[in-house]
Amino acid sequence: MPDDNSAELGYAESYGQQWIDRSKFWGSLRYHVRYQKQFIECLALEGSTKILECGSGTGEIAQYAMEQYLSDDGPAVEFCLVDISSTLLKSVRKNLTPPKRVQPHLIRATGEHLPFDDEYFDRIYALSMLWYAPNPKRAILDMLRILKPGGLLCFDIMSIFNPTGILATLSNKISVALRGGQRVAYLSPSEISFMLRQENVEIDVVGYMPFLPTALPGIGNGLNLFNLMNWLPKTRNPLLIPFCNKTIYCVKKNGRQKTKKS
Ligand SMILES: C[S@@+](CC[C@H](N)C(=O)[O-])C[C@H]1O[C@@H](n2cnc3c(N)ncnc32)[C@H](O)[C@@H]1O
User: Is domain 6-253 annotated with CATH 3.40.50.150?
Assistant: First the structure.
């Protein structure tokens, strides 16, 4: 583990146990599972041999990705699962049943300081992770560092301008003020665009579930329209994306040198 991020690790273990309990609830929401599958589809995993999930939680998403896209007789695959919480990594170790050609590696680290060489992975993803990370910008840049040229990085954000994002931010601020704990650090779409403009990448952005909240105070997911529908509204319209509940960024790293404008 890098030694300069002990403050970031402070919340990891209490959060780990919470996520083991909460992931069952999220896994019971049909719209959420549909969204997770769409996210994994964006990665185009077929043919990749070095894959990293950052913030792997209980390992359910990696298990789905392996079964769905890596269970045939293709080349050997190195699949790394990184998480800040050793409690969660223990649960991955217990539950993961990889297909024959997949070799999983479980590593405790933070997304902000990934212990891998530059340009190592073909595919990297962070699903529902960045809004828990103390420094999401640094995590995105470190994931880009270890991505091969031509490789694909997919991550999602929850926008602060969506009703769910607004409620989640408020509830986090109140709970941090009353009980302490981890402050969430949301990124706005404009911050991400600004940051990625400095990098040599191509970006595809899709927003999911504009405007409507997925949970309401007191009512929770009881009145969640997305759970009742068989499809997820999505958009590539830059004016609507800030209001989406979740937005997926697919970032392709270019191989060519960036030409600086004079
Ligand atoms: C909401 S869970 C999502 C888990 C999984 N990706 C999924 O979608 O089911 C967020 C995960 O990110 C991990 N996490 C939070 N901050 C992190 C950080 N800075 N570096 C690495 N992992 C982190 C948490 O421990 C947790 O496993």
Answer: yes
Which amino acid is residue 44, in one-letter code? A
The ligand 1 atom at the shortest distance from the C-alpha of residue 53 is 6
Question: What DSSP element (H or E) covers 208?
Answer: strand 201-210
Q: What is the mean pLDDT of residues 108-118?
A: 97
Q: Quote the ligand 1 centre to 12 CA distance (angstroms).
A: 9
For 180-242, where are the alpha helices, taking DSSP H only?
189-197, 225-228
Q: How many A from CA of 128 to the centre of ligand 1?
A: 7
pTM of the model: 0.91
* Span 126-152, pLDDT tens digits: 999 998 888 999 999 999 999 999 999
The strand pairing partners of 205, in sequence order, are 249
* pLDDT of 75 above 90: yes
How far apart, in whole angstroms, are the C-alpha atoms of residue 89 and residue 15?
13
Find the 154 Cα to ligand 1 centroid distance in Å.
14
Helix 30-42 to helix 12-27 angle, to the nearest 10 degrees? 110
